[in-house]
Design goal:
This protein is mainly beta and about 300 residues long. The protein has a twelve-stranded antiparallel beta sheet, with no helix packed on it. The longest helix is centred in the last third of the chain and has 5 residues. It is elongated and about 80 Å long.
């Protein structure tokens, strides 16, 4: 896909009421993706699925502000280029009528070229926020076991392992789920497990000019953000056209990247896109954050 957005300030400064009124900007975006999928059934017990995919994106975002003579001054110059290549493979084997095992891998290689300059009002100058290029990867492997305990009760258990090459770190994440057919119309379900995620690459590489000169250190030391999920559900089918579904969930977040400053409330779970690095509260981060969601 291709897209662009042009913003042109009105050339009459007497009508300007704020800084946004005197901004010229152009945003451009291009992206593309492709993939191949292979599915092979070896027998009534065994099948495999393999997927290869590639994606590309490029963003340029240039912003200027005008003075009363309509002379532009640079506010931002951003260029973000990303290429991703991934492989997903799984093998599913039905041991017998009540036991099925599934195992698989997900591997992705990511190349990037990121540049960002932005006017920093705290230092009164154009500041380099991001200048990074290279390659990194994320690799996952998992195994799952599905057991039919009785005709009405099914249990899924498994473990997922994630390796993040940029940080040279890995996690082990056990997970389980269960369903119980209470009646012909009613089903109870429960699931719980550990999960982790990688933050946008800008969070790891961005720096910030500090008052008095110099750059703050980057956040490449950050570990993966982690969470414990638990969900309890109930479904009831009144008839072919009407059903009821209820769910209660709890999510405990930990190892969340937060700015290492008591006066700042910056957290990666509240600012998730690449432009978050421009806010004044962004800075050196640690995995000291915690949180919870429920409902």
């Amino acid at each position: 896909g291709v897209g662009s957005q042009l913003e042109v300030a009105e050339r009459d400064f007497t009508r300007w009421t704020g800084i946004s009124d005197k901004v010229d900007g152009i945003f451009k975006y291009t992206s593309g993706s492709s993939g191949l999928k292979h599915f092979k059934i070896f027998s009534d017990r065994l099948y495999t699925r393999n997927i290869l995919s590639a994606s590309y994106s490029r963003i340029t975002d240039n912003t200027d502000t005008l003075d009363n003579s309509y002379v532009p001054s640079v506010v931002g110059r951003n260029r973000f280029m990303n290429n991703s290549y991934s492989y997903t493979g799984l093998l599913n084997y039905k041991i017998n009528a009540t036991n099925t095992v599934r195992t698989g891998v997900i591997a992705s290689i990511h190349s990037f070229d990121l540049d960002s300059y932005h006017y920093d009002f705290s230092v009164g100058a154009l500041s380099k926020y991001l200048e990074a290029s290279g390659n990194t990867g994320k690799f996952q492997a998992y195994v799952q076991w599905k057991k039919q305990m009785t005709g009405k009760w099914h249990v899924n258990t498994g473990i997922n392992s994630t390796y993040f090459a940029l940080r040279d770190s890995w996690t082990a994440e056990p997970r389980m789920g269960s369903t119980y057919q209470a009646s012909e119309r009613a089903v109870w379900s429960f699931g719980a497990g550990l999960h982790s995620r990688v933050e946008p690459l800008a969070f790891y590489y961005a720096t910030k000019e500090v008052a008095g000169g110099g750059q703050s250190v980057s956040n490449r030391h950050l570990e993966l953000t982690k969470a414990l999920h638990a969900v309890l559900g109930y479904e009831y089918q009144f008839n072919d056209d009407l059903g009821l579904k209820l769910e209660g969930y709890y999510q405990h977040l930990y190892d969340v990247p937060v700015v290492n400053d008591p006066s700042s409330n910056f957290s990666s779970i509240n600012f998730e896109n690449i432009y978050s690095i421009f806010v004044n509260r962004y800075g050196y981060m640690t995995n000291a954050g915690k949180g919870r969601n429920y409902g």
